[in-house]
Amino acid sequence: MANSAAEMPARQTSFRSERTAWQKLKASPNWLGFWYMVPAMGILILFLAYPLGLGVWLSFTDTKIGRAGVFIGLENYIWLWEDRVFWTSVFNTLLYTTVASAAKFVIGLYLALLLNKHLPFKAMIRALVLIPFIVPTVLSAIAFWWIYDAQFSIISWSLRQLGWIDYNINFLGDVWNARWSTIFANVWRGVPFIAITLLAGLQTVSPSLYEAATLDGATPWQRFRHITYPLLTPIIAVVMTFSVLFTFTDFQLIWALTRGGPVNATHLMATLSYQRAIIAGQLGEGAAISTAMIPFLLAAIGIAWYGLQTRKWQQGGSNE
Amino acid sequence: MASVQIADVRKAYGATQVIHGVDIDIDDGEFVILVGPSGCGKSTLLRMIAGLENISGGEIRIGPRVVNDVPPKERDIAMVFQNYALYPHMTVADNMAFSMKLRKAPKSEIDERVGKAAGILGLDKLLDRYPRQLSGGQRQRVAMGRAIVRDPQVFLFDEPLSNLDAKLRVQMRTEIKELHQRLKTTTVYVTHDQIEAMTMADKIVVMHDGIVEQMGAPLELYDRPANLFVAAFIGSPSMNLLKGKITAGGFETEGGVVWPIGQHPADSNGRAAVFGIRPEHIQLDANGLKAEVVVVEPMGSETQVVVRCGGQNLTCVFRERITAKPGETITITPDTNVTHLFDAATGKRID
């Protein structure tokens, strides 16, 4: 009895100190927070950081499908530098991104402004606008493929019926026709996303601001220029970043429509990378093309970041 | 500055008519308040003066000019909105200068006018701030500043104080009235708060369900309400209204209590009517009517007491301090110089 009584306190103290250390850790918000972060971190590392790192690494090797490569330094990039097809794809990607994004922005903004007015059947029209966005890309690409078909194109047929032309337009067979045709398809598909997002932004602008501006003597154009546009800039920055990134990395539409043809005229960097890496098996070279997209994307994000930075008028003030 | 004439103005949304022929004459430099419960059409009427709503019928004149088909910016009016409608991306100075910049006024003139308005309203130190960085009262002042800079013929205010807390509201009330006395610009002001109307207006227009119930100076409305609606709406706490009939001895309520009344038409004995007495016009009187105390609300300067008399609750306001506890009986009598009688059927005042 006496023995155990003497032992007890010692055991208890050691037990207690052990528990306190663990409890301390358990109670620490940082420690707990770390564990909450682990699943997200794991997913990000496994599915984003690792593939990205692997891609960059592959671009410095001569890996082929079925054969592990060795480190060859910048050799892939040197080849690409001298490769006319690569530079065509860079040109195409820039053209495709610039023209399509600009067109999507203008049309999307116009649609958003239109849909923000009191129209009959407004809800239905808003739903209709979303349709191009809901249709799977590949399906809409196939539809466009038929629309652009050299023999059965509905556009050629209609224009012929109208008597405006007497030959079929070679939409996808001619270099520039193919470029404009793919850009048009991309715009058709991308407009709803921009229109609906900008519409959401427009609806956050209080109608009384427009009334105040009307009384202040602003014309409709001045109301757009001085009220709508500045209040919409934050959301324009977000939506255009996404739009540029999606357009720059577009693959599906081109692959389904032209596979980069005719004679590489519509190859984007993404499709060229796929062709070189997967079809031709030159994993290293394909990876180098993909890696070459990174600086462009970073530049796009950088511009968006600049645009996204909170403006002075959005800061400060706790109420409202 | 200009007068405003509203002649038989009507407003309909489709088949629903919301304003049924309103006539109001506003003199040059007058401060007119449109007051009424929500949905009475007062804001709609203001927006019609501003040109933000179409006029379905009748005529609105600003000065000599009929403005029915004149676009808002050519009406030479300025409006202060309930939510202030400050442009969030512009500084205080830019907010105030916006209308002049649109007109391409020279910079020196803009600076001068903005500076002057800021001086009047005490905004000099806030000119570089954005609306988000201002308190409610300051935003309210900027909204007024924006109106002042325009130097318009008419100021329109649409419930400008309803987003402020009680204390600030009292302060801004004084400021707006002072501003009007200083600038002497014709002002039309919409509110649902009868205290605002009473304290600020030269002329009050009481509206209800799209018609004008009564129009006149604040004390005129208080002293001689034209009908039951105005009687109940103007004054705080509101007038006690008791149903019953006029008899030889006074006014007999449905509960059988006979109240002494003042002047009334000689031939009105037995006429069904409503008796009105303001809480502040009930006095303690040892020979008065017995009433049971229900609630006592001391407010310092005066005491508000709810009593039960003949089965009905009445509100009384006494200057004296009341020691009676709930359940006890006090004796009260109306000041017969200021009692009111209304026809039971039409609600019109009986003189």
UniProtKB/TrEMBL annotation, chain A:
<keyword id="KW-1003">Cell membrane</keyword>
<keyword id="KW-0812">Transmembrane</keyword>
<feature type="transmembrane region" description="Helical">
    <location>
        <begin position="190"/>
        <end position="210"/>
    </location>
</feature>
<feature type="transmembrane region" description="Helical">
    <location>
        <begin position="127"/>
        <end position="148"/>
    </location>
</feature>
<feature type="transmembrane region" description="Helical">
    <location>
        <begin position="34"/>
        <end position="58"/>
    </location>
</feature>
<dbReference type="Pfam" id="PF00528">
    <property type="entry name" value="BPD_transp_1"/>
</dbReference>
<dbReference type="GO" id="GO:0055085">
    <property type="term" value="P:transmembrane transport"/>
</dbReference>
<dbReference type="GO" id="GO:0005886">
    <property type="term" value="C:plasma membrane"/>
</dbReference>
<feature type="transmembrane region" description="Helical">
    <location>
        <begin position="93"/>
        <end position="115"/>
    </location>
</feature>
<protein>
    <submittedName>
        <fullName>ABC transporter permease</fullName>
    </submittedName>
</protein>
<feature type="domain" description="ABC transmembrane type-1">
    <location>
        <begin position="90"/>
        <end position="304"/>
    </location>
</feature>
<keyword id="KW-0813">Transport</keyword>
<dbReference type="InterPro" id="IPR035906">
    <property type="entry name" value="MetI-like_sf"/>
</dbReference>
<feature type="transmembrane region" description="Helical">
    <location>
        <begin position="287"/>
        <end position="308"/>
    </location>
</feature>
<feature type="transmembrane region" description="Helical">
    <location>
        <begin position="231"/>
        <end position="255"/>
    </location>
</feature>
<keyword id="KW-1133">Transmembrane helix</keyword>
<dbReference type="InterPro" id="IPR000515">
    <property type="entry name" value="MetI-like"/>
</dbReference>
<keyword id="KW-0472">Membrane</keyword>
<comment type="similarity">
    <text>Belongs to the binding-protein-dependent transport system permease family.</text>
</comment>
Automatic annotation (TrEMBL), chain B:
<dbReference type="GO" id="GO:0008643">
    <property type="term" value="P:carbohydrate transport"/>
</dbReference>
<dbReference type="Pfam" id="PF03459">
    <property type="entry name" value="TOBE"/>
</dbReference>
<dbReference type="Pfam" id="PF00005">
    <property type="entry name" value="ABC_tran"/>
</dbReference>
<dbReference type="GO" id="GO:0005524">
    <property type="term" value="F:ATP binding"/>
</dbReference>
<keyword id="KW-0067">ATP-binding</keyword>
<dbReference type="InterPro" id="IPR012340">
    <property type="entry name" value="NA-bd_OB-fold"/>
</dbReference>
<dbReference type="InterPro" id="IPR003593">
    <property type="entry name" value="AAA+_ATPase"/>
</dbReference>
<keyword id="KW-0547">Nucleotide-binding</keyword>
<dbReference type="GO" id="GO:0016887">
    <property type="term" value="F:ATP hydrolysis activity"/>
</dbReference>
<dbReference type="InterPro" id="IPR008995">
    <property type="entry name" value="Mo/tungstate-bd_C_term_dom"/>
</dbReference>
<dbReference type="InterPro" id="IPR040582">
    <property type="entry name" value="OB_MalK-like"/>
</dbReference>
<protein>
    <submittedName>
        <fullName>Sugar ABC transporter ATP-binding protein</fullName>
    </submittedName>
</protein>
<dbReference type="Pfam" id="PF17912">
    <property type="entry name" value="OB_MalK"/>
</dbReference>
<feature type="domain" description="ABC transporter">
    <location>
        <begin position="4"/>
        <end position="234"/>
    </location>
</feature>
<dbReference type="GO" id="GO:0140359">
    <property type="term" value="F:ABC-type transporter activity"/>
</dbReference>
<dbReference type="InterPro" id="IPR027417">
    <property type="entry name" value="P-loop_NTPase"/>
</dbReference>
<dbReference type="InterPro" id="IPR005116">
    <property type="entry name" value="Transp-assoc_OB_typ1"/>
</dbReference>
<comment type="similarity">
    <text>Belongs to the ABC transporter superfamily.</text>
</comment>
<dbReference type="InterPro" id="IPR017871">
    <property type="entry name" value="ABC_transporter-like_CS"/>
</dbReference>
<dbReference type="InterPro" id="IPR047641">
    <property type="entry name" value="ABC_transpr_MalK/UgpC-like"/>
</dbReference>
<dbReference type="InterPro" id="IPR003439">
    <property type="entry name" value="ABC_transporter-like_ATP-bd"/>
</dbReference>
<dbReference type="GO" id="GO:0055052">
    <property type="term" value="C:ATP-binding cassette (ABC) transporter complex, substrate-binding subunit-containing"/>
</dbReference>
